[in-house]
């Protein structure tokens, strides 16, 4: 015999509470189920990266020329990038194709990440899948472009400024690309700050007021981080690393204010 809940003044609230916390019973997974789900997402992401690598190899010359263009413009007249190991140039091509594959597969990879964490979310939080994929992908691409057109050329110009009649600037291929890749990953992660704040604000874990109130500590932490990751020790180089982080922090405050509660915006 089924028991019917007694209708009362709180029955509507009871139903809404169920809607807000409807973590379905069939979505409860054991530890082994989570491992199997993780394996599935990793395998699918690797397949997408492999497809991207194949596409990257089809345009490898254009991609390599695009990456090395900022450095080539700074080389002395008649000089060129050099490589001293037999497999160094081939290794560069493989790494460039791998990075191109990851960037091409980035939207699909972010979607797989979302599918992995979605079972642990509420139903209203699961609707954020498209914003998560779009914002994380655009953030990484934006960081990569900022690095290529602004940060990396500035860094190479600084290093090339020591070129004199007695000192020739002839960088190794592997060293140039190694620095480029590290800065690319760093800027890609830094540009995820608005995405992170967006979801934290949606989940009511941070507010615009909290971020604005602690901006002085954020500035201190940003300059400390910039000093650690900056290859050069001069103030100008540190500033060009810190400037985008400061701008993104201010943008994050605006994002938190826009997605925060209406009462906070009115205040």
Radius of gyration: 24 Å
How is the main sheet built?
none
Q: Please report the number of helical segments.
A: 13
Count of strand segments: 0
Any key phrases for this structure?
267 residues, mainly alpha, flat, disordered N terminus
How would you describe the overall organization of this protein?
The protein is mostly helical and 267 residues long. The protein is 73% helix and 0% strand. It contains 13 helices and no strands. Helix 7 (129-160) packs antiparallel against helix 9.
Write the layout of secondary structure elements.
Elements: H1 11-20, H2 31-58, H3 60-72, H4 88-104, H5 106-117, H6 123-126, H7 129-160, H8 173-190, H9 193-202, H10 208-213, H11 215-229, H12 235-259, H13 262-266
Question: What is the compact description of this entry?
Answer:
This protein is mostly helical and 267 residues long.
């Amino acid at each position: 015999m089924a028991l019917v809940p007694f209708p009362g003044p709180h029955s509507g609230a009871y139903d809404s509470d169920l809607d807000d916390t409807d973590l379905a019973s069939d979505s409860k997974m054991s530890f082994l189920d989570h491992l199997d789900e993780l394996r599935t997402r990793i395998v699918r992401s690797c397949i997408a990266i492999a497809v991207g690598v194949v596409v990257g190899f089809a345009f490898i010359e254009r991609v390599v020329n695009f990456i090395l263009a900022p450095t080539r413009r700074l080389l002395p007249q008649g000089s060129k990038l050099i490589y001293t190991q037999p497999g160094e140039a081939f290794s560069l091509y493989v790494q460039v194709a791998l990075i191109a594959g990851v960037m091409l597969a980035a939207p699909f990879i972010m979607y797989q990440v979302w599918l992995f964490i979605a079972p642990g979310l509420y139903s209203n939080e699961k609707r954020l899948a498209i914003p998560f994929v779009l914002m994380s992908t655009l953030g990484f691409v934006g960081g990569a472009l900022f690095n290529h057109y602004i940060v990396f050329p500035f860094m190479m110009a600084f290093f090339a400024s020591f070129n004199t009649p007695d000192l020739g600037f002839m960088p190794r291929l592997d060293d140039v690309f190694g620095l480029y890749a590290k800065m690319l990953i760093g800027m890609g992660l830094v540009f995820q700050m608005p995405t992170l704040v967006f979801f934290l604000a949606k989940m009511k874990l941070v507010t615009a007021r909290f971020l604005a109130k602690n901006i002085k500590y954020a500035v201190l932490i940003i300059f400390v981080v910039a000093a650690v990751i900056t290859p050069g020790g001069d103030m100008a180089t540190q500033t060009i690393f810190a400037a985008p982080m400061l701008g993104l922090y201010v943008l994050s405050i605006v994002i938190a204010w826009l997605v925060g509660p209406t009462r906070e915006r009115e205040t």
